[in-house]
Every structure is written in C-alpha cells, then in structure tokens.
C-alpha cells in the first residue's frame, strides 16, 4: 500500500457528505490487495470485485457423455446442449473501528508516522478477520457475532459438498486416499490443479507420522524433494507441505481444529481436510471501501471507521470434498 493511498484513506471527511471517504476504484483495489496480504484462502480463492451488493455468476455445464456413434445418412434425433445455471453472491456490510489519542501521536517515537502505521495494522487485521469469516462463518452460531454474517466455505461444503467421515481417526495417508476417492472422476482429469487444505496441527501430525520409522518417507525421498524444489516442508502458512498422492497440501491456520466430534463417544479436538480446486471458492468484495477519519474534541482523539461488503459462494460443490471428524493428536 503506497503512502499516497494511505493519505487518501486517512484524509478528514464529513460523514454523509457527497462521496466523502469513498475510495476511487484503483485505491480500493490496492486496499483490498493489502488486506489480503497475510491471508491464505482469501488469496487462494477467486476474488470478484463487485460494484453492486449482489452478483450473479453464470455457469455453463455440459454434463457427462455427449459423443455418439454416427450412423451414416441417419439423423438420430439426439441434440446435445449446454446447461446454463447461476451462483449468487450477496455481500454483507462490515465495520472496523479504531481510535488514536492526541497524546499517542505526540509522545511516541514514530510521531505522525504512527497514524499510517496503525492504519496498516488495522488493514491487516481486517484481512485476518475476513479470512476467519469466509472460512468459519455460520449463521446458526450464537457465540460470535462476526460468524453470523454469512455461511463460510466450510459450512457451504458440509451442506452441499461431498462429505466423508473419518470417525475420529488421526490423519494418515488413508484420510487423503478417502478424499481422492470421493472426488468424481470427471474432476480427476485436472488432478494437477487440485489442492488439499488442512489446519496447522493436522499437517504437523501428518508430518510427524510420516517421518517416523515405517511412516512412509524415506531419506531418499526427502533429498530428492529438496533437489527438485518440491519441498517436503513449507515455510509460511499457505505454502505447500508434503504431497499426498501427488497433490500438494496447503496449510490454513484459520481452519478450526478445536471442533467436537460428531460421531458416537467422540472425545478430544477434531479438525477437517478439504480437497478442491483453488478457484472453486469465490469471494465477492464490493469495490467501494469507505474509510472515515474524524477528530473528537471532547475526547481529544481521532476516530476511524472503515466499511466494506463481503460475500462468498462455491462455484461447484460437486468438486468440493470435506473429510470431517479428523482427530487432532493430543
């Protein structure tokens, strides 16, 4: 994010004034990009910059077998056609507030630069909160108001995707095997584009198991992975960890790994594994991000308020596999 953008974002505006605080198209794009900087799923998914609160995305499907045996000089009377459907993304309005006292701006070592520094931190935190929401959003939850905004990708996949139950098993190659077998063969033709996604602890459990005697990794495999750059381990969150049957595994720290099991006599914490195409997840962000800056004389503080609208949907739930009830090792 450039200093010019921060200056535009942080400039004093009058709430309710004509267009006051409204970012220009290019500025909003850069602000969105900055919010996504520390995220995994939000960057990995297909982001749609929306101008309206609701957007319909067209889908074209051709079904399964269309090719026919041609009979010479005969009209078989069968015409193939594409199927046109839509998925809808409806955005929900969210707000982020923060304030700075005059003393904090005067007394800190950064001086006036603290204002820009805090703005950057708040933009990053907004991105992290959005990442949490688009994954874990659930309108039926009563404990967290943020999650009530809309159903996130995990809830959408559990409701309409292909769900496999691990039944409390810890993560092994068998878990990945069951996920792949649940994926229809139509999508396995693009196997090199598929990705596994899981939480940090489950990936750590898998790495630990695989590196034990008889776990599945051999020293030769580790060395060869380093040489070809495949990487048996990754660095930052979101990088590929080990490959499971040729498909990279991506770490997503915001995947919930403290879930209670939904099978009989379940104990301990559970997480889940997902298998899909990265662009199967669609995040809608309304382009007009609004940031207000207002000085409050009676409090001697500067108040900041940011508004944005976010929505999500899955383009094709038929190619979205979830393995639930995967137990996290104690």
How does this structure look, described?
By secondary structure, this protein is of the alpha+beta class. It has a 6-stranded mixed β-sheet, sandwiched between helices.
Keywords:
single chain, 330 residues, alpha+beta, Major capsid protein gp5 fold, 2 domains, 6-stranded mixed β-sheet, 5-stranded mixed β-sheet, 10 helices, 13 strands, 29% helix
Q: What is shown here, in short?
A:
The protein is 29% helix and 27% strand. The chain is of the alpha+beta class and 330 residues long. The protein has two domains: 3-62 and 77-145 and 283-314, Major capsid protein gp5 fold (2-Layer Sandwich), CATH 3.30.2400.10; 170-281, no CATH class.
């Amino acid at each position: 994010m450039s200093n010019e953008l921060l200056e535009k974002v942080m400039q004093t505006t009058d709430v309710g004034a004509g267009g006051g605080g409204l970012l220009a198209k290019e500025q909003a794009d850069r602000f969105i990009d900055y919010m996504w900087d520390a995220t995994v799923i939000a960057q990995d998914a297909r982001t749609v910059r929306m101008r309206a609160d609701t957007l319909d995305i067209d889908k074209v499907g051709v079904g399964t077998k269309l090719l026919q045996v041609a009979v010479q000089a005969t009209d078989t009377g069968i015409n193939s056609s594409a199927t046109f459907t839509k998925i809808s993304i409806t955005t929900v309005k969210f707000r982020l507030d923060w304030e700075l006292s005059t003393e904090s701006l005067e007394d800190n070592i950064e001086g006036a630069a603290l204002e820009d520094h805090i703005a950057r931190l708040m933009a990053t935190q907004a991105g992290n909160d959005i990442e949490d929401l688009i994954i874990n959003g659930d309108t039926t939850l009563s404990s967290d108001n943020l999650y009530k905004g809309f159903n996130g990708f995990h809830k959408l996949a559990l409701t309409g995707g292909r769900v496999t139950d691990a039944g409390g098993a810890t993560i092994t190659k068998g878990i990945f095997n069951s996920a792949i077998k649940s994926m229809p063969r139509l999508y396995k033709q693009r196997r090199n584009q598929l990705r596994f996604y899981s939480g940090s602890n489950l990936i750590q459990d898998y790495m630990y198991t695989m590196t034990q005697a008889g776990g599945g990794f051999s020293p030769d495999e580790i060395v060869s992975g380093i040489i070809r750059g495949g990487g048996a381990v990754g660095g930052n969150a979101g990088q590929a960890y080990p490959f499971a049957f040729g498909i990279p595994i991506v770490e997503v720290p915001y995947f919930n790994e403290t879930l209670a099991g939904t099978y009989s006599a379940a104990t301990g914490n559970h997480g889940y594994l997902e298998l899909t195409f990265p662009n199967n997840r669609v995040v809608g962000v309304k382009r007009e991000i609004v940031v207000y800056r207002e000085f409050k004389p009676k409090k001697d503080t500067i108040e900041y308020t940011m508004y944005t609208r976010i929505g999500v949907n899955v383009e094709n739930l038929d190619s979205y596999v979830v393995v639930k009830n995967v137990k996290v090792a104690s």
